[in-house]
Amino acid sequence: MKKTFIALALLTLVSCKKNAADEDKLPVDDSPVVHAEFPAHAPKGCGGGFYSVHYTDALKTLRQTEDFRPGERDYYVSELSDRRNEYLNASISPSERTEWLNGHKIPEKDQHCLLPLFEAIGEAAKRTLPNYHPHGYTHHDDDDIIRGSIKEEMPDAEILGVGVMSPTWNIEKHSNGVPSVRYKYGMAWVKSAKFDDGYCRIAYVNVLQDYSGGGSYGESRPNFIRAEPSGCPK
Length: 234
Fold this sequence. Notes:
With 234 residues, the chain is α+β, with helices and mostly antiparallel strands.
């Protein structure tokens, strides 16, 4: 009886470890890379510094979207401004595209300079973005703090996963060597009707504790950083 109990306990332990590892497994994408044909520079009639910069950054975004494969890099596309990639967002979201065109005051006669790139990014994202998932956030002591921050930012959010990268703290110090704050890198994987593109989001929420002197720190607090498009669980 004792041997049977030990065997069952070991089997349960192995099974739990396997399931925990499977949850953090990267998706597999062995499909061939497909590159849409676009010239390296903005087409004739779309010249000038304004279009040149946007065209170059949008083309870079397109190539990264097309080339993304899980495990080859830890980001989907580069952040180009304000901790976001405006070209990806404008390509996958109808409302973001309208906001981008209006915000940059692009006249309708000039929209042909960038809209084909937005369309191509959106099509490439359909192939590769579903395989962009959070990975490595496997520690859960600070889940409630992260969840609370998400509910403030996105009250309707369905939280699909949450965690921090490490159970230990990173310490930021003043120039005199005295600590100012310590922090952990945190994340929540969410789905929210706030976004009209059908994709989920990886929301980055750091957990901070301010230094209070004498080797002690204050209570944990969240610092919402940003949310980026991602695939949803399969």
